[in-house]
Write a structure and sequence with these properties.
Elements lengths: L6 E8 L3 E6 L3 E7 L2 E4 L4 E5 L1 H4 L9 E4 L2 E2 L2 E2 L2 H16 L5 E9 L5 H12 L5 E6 H8 L10 E6 L4 E7 L2 E8 L3 H16 L1 E2 L2 H10 L11 E8 L5 E7 H25 L2 H10 L1 E4 L8 H9 L3 E3 L6 H9 L12 H7 L1
Parallel strand pairs: 1-9, 9-10, 11-17, 17-18
Antiparallel strand pairs: 1-2, 2-3, 4-5, 4-6, 7-8, 11-12, 12-13, 14-15, 15-16
Length: about 350
């Protein structure tokens, strides 16, 4: 990586499905799928991001399209490090500066090993100092929530790999939960349902398109039909079927119920005064998974508290990470001692 005379601070939403990079003073400069295409024989990275995503399910045997993050954490360290280097280099090239402090979002319940993997991979990508921030905290800030006040605010961040639910007050997380149920889980549930009920094998991208165009969290709220192409499991030949919103809703009802249970669990552990604040102010949903049609209405009907989606839910975590870079000292952010000394 080429280094320049001055540095710039960077915020990264290191998501299971998508990586967003926020450069201080520039805003979000990069939004790419978390996918890397690798030639297994030559052990060489061939493509990263959208180009690599287009190769999923379409590559010859020696080339694999890898998603190095699973369930919100690093599953392939080497590939993640290469992906980060590529994205960071691409993000700072326009401003002609080297990376300074880098802040990365992590799930609320990330283990020490998972935290260390993120820190090491980010540092090896050229960072001068590495900070970690919990995803719901960054999401709330990015959604425009003033978390510095002694009021209870609740955020549900549904990404590709994890759903993080948190109650925030005075700049920190009071109650939290993180489950490995999110956008990817919806896709997997759709693939399984169509395989079992229609004897048709479909890919991840087809399932994602069904989730976007047909799915609904509530019965009767959406009445769409979509043609689905795949491989017939009986004949082994290409085939096409028609699926409805009701079928897709049936497919994803279990993961939606798990998200509801997580929200209820956090509310049950919330101190009474903060619960009263949430009742008054409502709940904010962020992340790509929050865009599931009818999900906010479903949660609202089940818990009796107003639930609203953030204006730009996909970018909230990255936006919040960028804003936090400017006010680090005011928030309860996890960081390593050696990084703190380096920055000071």
């Amino acid at each position: 990586m080429r280094f320049f005379n001055s540095s710039v601070d960077i915020g990264i939403d290191l998501g299971t499905a998508t990586v967003l990079v926020y450069v201080k003073g520039q805003g979000i400069v990069l939004k790419e799928p978390s996918v890397v295409a690798v030639d297994k024989i030559k052990n060489k990275v061939l493509a990263v991001g959208e180009e690599a995503r287009n190769m999923i399910g379409r590559t010859p045997g020696n080339i694999v399209a890898v998603r190095p993050l699973r369930d919100g954490v690093i599953s392939d360290y080497d590939i993640t490090e290469k992906m980060l280097k590529y994205f960071i280099s691409g993000s700072i090239k326009k401003v002609k500066k080297s990376p300074g402090k880098i802040m990365v979002c992590i799930p609320s319940k990330a283990t020490e090993i998972e935290r260390r993997a993120v820190i090491d991979a980010t540092r090896n990508s050229g960072a001068r100092g590495v900070y970690l921030i919990e995803e719901p905290l960054a999401a709330a800030i990015g959604a425009g929530v003033d978390i510095s006040m002694p009021n209870g605010r609740m955020v549900i961040d549904i990404g590709g790999g994890t759903c993080d639910v948190a109650v925030i007050s005075l700049g920190g997380v009071v109650v939290r939960d993180s489950i490995k149920v999110a956008g990817d889980t919806f896709d997997e549930a759709i693939i399984k349902y169509i395989r079992v009920n229609n004897k048709l094998m479909i890919g991840e991208r087809t399932a994602e398109q069904l989730k976007i165009s047909v799915a609904s969290a509530i019965s009767g709220l959406r009445n769409e039909n979509a043609k689905v192409k795949g491989r017939n499991m009986v004949t082994g030949l290409p085939d096409e079927i028609l699926v409805s919103s009701d079928e897709i809703r049936e497919a994803i009802k279990e993961p939606i119920k798990l998200i509801l249970d997580s929200v209820k669990s956090v509310l049950e552990k919330t101190p009474p005064e903060l619960a009263a604040d949430i009742m008054e102010d409502g709940i904010v949903m962020t992340g790509g998974g929050a865009l599931l049609f009818g999900l906010s209405k479903y949660l609202e009907s089940e818990i009796g508290v107003q639930v609203r989606g953030a204006e730009d839910s996909i970018s909230c975590v990255a936006e919040g990470t960028g804003k936090v870079l400017e006010t680090i000292e005011k928030l309860n952010i996890l960081m390593e001692e050696e990084e703190v000394r380096m920055i000071e």
